[in-house]
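Inputs:
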Amino acid sequence: MGDAMNVAETPIAGPRGRLPRVALPASAMTGLLALPLLLFLLAFFFLPAFRLLIYSVLTQDAQGVVGRPWTFEHYDHLVTGGLYARVLWNTLRISLVTSVLAILLGYPVALVMVRSRPVVTRAITLIVIAPLIVSVVVRSYGWQLVLGNGPTGLMNWVLLSLGLIETPIAILYTETAVVIGSLHVFFPMMVLPLASALGKIEPSLEQAARTLGAPWWSVFRRVTLPLSLPGLVAGFTLVFSLTAGSYVTPVLLGGTNALMLGNLIEQQIFTVYDWPFGAAIATVLVVIVLAVNLLSMRLLEGRRLRSIGQ
Amino acid sequence: MTRLGGPGAWILFGITALIMAFILTPLLIVVAMSTSDTYFASFPPEGFTLAWYGKALTDREFLSSLAFSALLALGATATALLMGVPAAFALVRGSFPGRSFIKGLLLSPLIFPALVTGLALLQLFSNMGWRDARVNLLIAHALVTSPYVIRTVMTSLMLVDVRLEEAARTLGASRLRTFRRIILPQIAPGVAAGSIFAFMVSFDNYPVSMWLADAEHNPVPLVIYRQIVTVFDPSVAAMSTIMIVLALAVVLVLERLVGLRRAMTL
C-alpha cells in the first residue's frame, strides 16, 4: 500500500509540476514522520530503561552513590533472600491464577457477547468495558468494601444474613483478595481479544461440524476452541503481564500478606533507598513480562505459519 | 454469526449474568456507600445524606488534584497526538525497512510494566536534576498514552481508501492539504476516540505518577489512594463516585462516537 504514495515521483505531479527534489522514494519519506516519536521514546523510555538495567549490576556505597564494582549480588539477594524470593513466587502465582481464572470466566462472557442479539451484546460490552475506564484505585476501594473482614463487609453481611456462615470470614488482606481484585481490574483484557477472535470464526465451520453430527462439546473442542486460540493467548499474555506489574491492588487488598514485586520495588526505592536492589527487582519483573510476551508471540507466529490464507 | 441456542446456551447466559454482577458489585457498593449517613464506610449503608459530597467537593486537595489531573491529561494527550498521528501515518502509509520492528518499538510502552517505566524516569530526572514535577509528569504521561493514540489512528488510517488520496494528489493538492482535507476528516472519529481513551489512561494513571509527583502536584488517583488509607468515612466513597460518574460519561461519549467495541479493539 506504500506504493500509492509513489504518485509524487511520476512526472504528472500536478499542475504546479513540482518534481520531488529528494532522491528518497516518497514512501520512505513518509517513514520519517515516525522519527519525532521514536526519538522521544529513545530519550525517555529506551535509554532510561537501559540505565535502570545498568544500575541493577552496580554497587551503592554508604553515601548512596551508585557506582562500580559490577556485581550480581542484588539478583542473588532476590532469589535467595527468604522474604524476597517469596514475593517473587507470590507474584508469579497470583499472576498465573488470575490469568487462568480470567480464561475460565472470560470465555463464556466472550461467547455470549459475540453470539447474542445486538441488545445483549451491547449491554455486555458496556458492562465489561466501563470499569476499564474507572481508576484502579477506585475499583480496589470497592473491593475493600465488598470483602471487608468483620460483619460490615458486603460479602460477610450477605453470608451472615443468609445464615450460611456463623462468624465473618477474613478474605481481605489475603492473596485471594488480590486475585479477585486483579481479576476484576484486568478482566476486559481477556474478554476483548477473545471476543474479537470468536467473532472472526466462520459460522459455516461450526454448522458443518454440527450437521455432520458432532455433539456440542466436540464442536467446541475441535472447532471453536482451536480457532479462538489467538485471542486466548493474547488475553492470557495481557492479563498475566498486567497482574505481574500491579502495585495498587496488592497494597489495598493484600496488605503485607500478599506483597508483589511492584510493592517490593517501591519499598526499596522510597523506604530503604536501595536503588541497585530496586533496579534489580524491576529488571526481573521486566524479564518475566517480556518472556511471557515473546513466548505468546512465538506461539501465535507458529500457528499463523501453519494456517492457510494468512 | 451463529446464535447460541439449546440448553447449553442458558447455562452460558447464567454464568455471564453472574460475572456481570461480579463486575458491577464493587462499583455499585461505592455509589451506595457515598450517601450513607454513617461515620464509617460499612455495610449496609444507612439513611441518606449528601453531606459526604459536600465534604468531598470542599476538600481543597481533592479539587486541586482533579484540576491538575485534567490539565495533565489534556497536555499528555495533546503531546501524544502531536507525535503519534504522524508516526501512525508513517507506519500505515510509509514503506521502509524494519517497519514492523519500528511499530513494535513504538507500541512497546504498552507491554512494559508501567511501574518500571515510572521508576526509570524518576532515575533519569533526578540524575538530570529536573525537579519540575509538572514537566516530568507530562513527559511520562505522554509516553504512556502515545501507544493508544498510535493504535487508534493506525486502525482508522487503514480504513481510509488510498485512492482518494491519490486522486487529491494527482489533482495537485499538496501533501499537507491532502492530509487536512481528505485524510483528517475520515480519521477524525478514530482520532477523537483515541484521544479520549488516552485522556482517561492519563487521568487514571497511578503506577507512573506515584514516582514523579511531589508535594504540590498530585494527580487525583494518588489523592484518593491516600484518602483510602487514612480516612474511613464515606467521603472517600463520594470522591470515588465522582470518578465513576466521570468514567461513565466518557464511556457514553465513546459509544456515541465510534461504538464501544470498535473503540476498544482500535
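Chain A touches chain B through 102 residues (CB under 8 Å). Flag for discussion at group meeting.
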